[in-house]
Write a structure and sequence with these properties.
Uroporphyrinogen_deCOase; 7-stranded parallel beta sheet; lyase; two-stranded antiparallel ribbon; binds coproporphyrinogen I; Uroporphyrinogen decarboxylase; 15 helices; alpha/beta; porphyrin biosynthesis
Length: about 350
């Protein structure tokens, strides 16, 4: 039976989309834009669907995950969907007790802190990823030429939650473990790299056209520590995509000091937070790297005239890079007026 035209294996549409071309360093007529955390609490249609569904259950129910992924694409006409899931999903699927506590974030039932805790971690059974594959395939079939970005948490950010037991201000317990027990640290990061790498690969195999690795909390590390104790594991996570021709994007918050090192693990494009302007990020990367970012999320609630000139400035500075995917410097705050996001998309598309 022939596959529908929108099937990713038959369609070259997403390969020629503004997003994928930009990740490959090509500029076209349209400046692509999407928003980190575009699916989520800023959308009334999301809040409605989530009633009675715990966050991680919603992620593992293919029809819900797919519908939530599509909502912001329909509403804002962004140039990409990002798969609705969470960085802790592969950890949960590997058998670790984790919940997303509303208003707080991922909370780990038994934090992982000792060599014995790490030794007890089980590998991820690929069969457990079936709901992820199903949700991605259903989503891609509906997206047509709009690419789906698959994503995963980088080993350091995942390990931070596992060691701390939940969200933390500066990941101090995790950073202590790096020094107090480097062997346990390395074993934990290898485990994280493999579960997160498998999660990412499942999304790509099921039809995602790009892959973003989020090392959200990398900004708490020194460059030397990052290079020695973290980067090799992040590379190991991305190595799970070997053989798949999808662009790889790497993003962290507060990553100014480690941008170059983060790029060197095998990323094609770099996400930049709001702390450094894109022309400065381009300079730090030595030029030649496609950039993604970096509208300050704090300005989403500012008067439109202020926000508009900020967006124009971001676009202007992004011209220093070979290509630019407009985004925020971090996720959409839940209280954001979604109409503001739609208006930014229109503005960016008018700037070309
Ligand atoms: O009740 C709710 O609606 C839960 C809020 C929520 C949502 C919508 C959480 C809890 N996760 C998500 C979805 C999610 N998580 C996406 C969806 C796709 C999209 O962007 O539209 C993505 C990409 C993530 C990834 C994620 N989860 C990251 C990396 C990106 C980032 O924001 O830095 C991190 C660090 C997490 C952990 C997490 N999950 C949820 C929260 C509130 C947090 C952060 C907690 C903390 O501050 O430590």
């Amino acid at each position: 039976m022939p596959l529908p035209d929108s099937h990713p294996l038959l369609s070259a549409d997403t390969a020629n989309s503004p997003l994928i071309r930009a990740y490959r360093g090509q500029r076209g007529d349209r400046l692509p834009i999407w928003f980190m955390r575009q699916a989520g609490r800023s959308l009334p249609e999301y809040r409605e669907l989530r009633v009675g569904n715990a966050m991680l259950d919603a992620c593992l129910t293919p029809e819900l995950a797919s519908e939530i992924t599509l909502q912001p694409v329909r509403r804002h006409a962004v140039d990409a969907a990002i798969f609705f899931s969470d960085i802790v999903i592969p950890v949960k699927l590997a058998g670790v007790g984790v919940e997303i506590v509303p208003g707080r974030g991922p909370v780990i039932e038994h934090p992982i802190r000792t060599a014995a805790d790490v030794a007890a971690l089980r590998p991820l059974d690929p069969a457990a990823l079936a709901p992820i594959r199903e949700a991605v395939a259903a989503t891609v079939a509906q997206l047509g030429s709009t690419p789906l970005i698959g994503f995963a948490g980088a080993p350091f950010t995942l390990a931070s939650y596992l060691v701390e037991g939940g969200p933390s201000k500066d990941q101090i317990r995790a950073r202590t473990l790096v020094y107090s027990d480097p062997h346990t640290w390395a074993a934990l990061l290898n485990w994280c790299a493999d579960v997160t790498g498998e999660f990412l690969r499942a999304q790509v195999e099921a039809g995602a056209s790009a892959a973003q690795l989020f090392d959200s909390w990398v900004g708490s590390l020194s460059e030397a520590n990052y290079v020695r104790r973290v980067a090799p594991h992040s590379k190991r996570a991305l190595d799970h995509l070997r053989g798949y021709d999808v662009p790889k994007v790497h993003f962290g918050v507060g990553s100014g000091e480690v941008l170059r090192a983060m790029h060197s693990i095998g990323a094609d494009a770099m996400g930049v937070d709001w702390r450094i302007p894109l022309d400065e990020a381009d300079r730090r990367l030595g030029g030649g790297v496609p950039l993604q970012g970096n509208i300050d999320p704090a300005l989403l609630a500012a008067p439109w005239s202020v926000l508009e000139s900020h967006v124009r400035d971001v676009v202007d500075r992004g011209r220093a890079a070979p290509a630019h995917v407009v985004n925020l410097g971090h996720g959409v705050p839940p209280e954001t007026d979604p109409d503001v996001l739609t208006r930014i998309v229109e503005l960016v598309h008018s700037l070309g």
